[in-house]
Amino acid sequence: MVEAAGFEGFEITWEADVFSGAPQSSSAAAFETVGINYRARKPA
Q1: What is the 3-class SS of the chain, one letter each residue?
Q2: pLDDT in tens, 3-32
Q3: Of 3, 19, 20, 21, whose CA is between 20 and 30 Å from 31?
């Protein structure tokens, strides 16, 4: 999908359970939801 948008060098730079301790944390855990930061570049 990322390549279809024209991006190169996609990488996940950070991943964490950002919903830990939230009221709906069990719902987020059931769907394996996490927060991520990513980096990619679009060729000129």
Answers
A1: CCHHHCCEEEEEEEEECCCCCCCCHHHHHHCCCCEEEEEEECCC
A2: 678 889 999 999 999 988 888 888 888 998
A3: 3
pLDDT score at 12: 95
25 alpha-carbon distance from chain centroid = 17
Amino acid at 13: T
Residue 38 has pLDDT above 90, yes or no: yes
- The encoded tokens of residue 17 equal 């359970």
**pTM as predicted:** 0.61
Burial 6-22 (b: 16+ CB within 10 A, else e): eeeeeeeeeeeeebeee
